[in-house]
Design goal:
alpha/beta; TIM Barrel; six-stranded parallel beta sheet
Amino acid sequence: MIVDFQHHFTPHELMPKDLGRRKIVSYDEHGAPSFILHWMLFDLDEHIRMMDEAGIDVAFLTSAAGMCADLDKSRLCNASAKKAERDYPGRFIGAAHANPLGGAEAFRELGRCKREFGFPGVVITSETNDLYLDAPEFEPFWAECAKLDLFVFVHPALKLNQTQQFDGYDTARSVGREFSLVMATIRMINAGVFDRHPNLTIHMSHLGGGLSALLGRIRSYQDKDFWGTLGNARHGMKPKKEFDYYLQNNMVFDTAGFCGAMGAVKGALIEIPASRIVFATDYPQEIRERAAVRDFVKELRALGKDGEAILSGNVDKLLKQPAKAA
């Protein structure tokens, strides 16, 4: 069974009524492009047509509108995801949307998504509200997810905390978000999130932002004595186990974020075991053509054993009770 673990939608109620076939791009306060709206986000019939052509059985639905959002938007996205499950039996699995910094009300919504809706995971962004994922303010959220046995899908921040250096060429979206994912991975591991919550699973999007290319350097800087930061309270902080232990036991990476480019997947496989990578497309944002998704599936399958593991063999790393293949 092939599950697309990064598949986006937006509830029709949150889309402009006169959108038509236009594309609407929003910008942050520094003028950096942030998000694009278009008709494919709410046309789930088109999603199913793409999935059928590409051979994808199930899609894990998340909505940018509900990532680290207020309670009303979170509830709307959750209800819409559940409706998609009912309207298209066996084809969609909803993600919980709940603000990790939203306190008791957000946690009640998180619990409702788990107990009433049966959602297996919750989606958040790699940074939000001028905070990063190692901030102590996130600790109650990690504890709640561990208690509820929900995996946490970390999507790139749609709006980076600091975007001034990305003042041109659409670099906040093209590379800034990827850097945010690399930083989120380093921060969570070194801050001891997994030492405090050893059963917590993080689904890190976009192959960790291309983490594999930097792992040699990251590993080296874990040697605090060599680099002279051993006694520094902030920069000398490190986890109880080796850095790679957490990559291979607490983290799962997906293949979205590189627009179907196989070079990114092959590069990731040099450092990240195929057993820790799941299939994802980022449809219908970074990939929108049915044929492009179909070709991506074919190219992954051509990798042989590793490709089959990515496409279907690792589904149970995130879904304890996978839906049946369509």
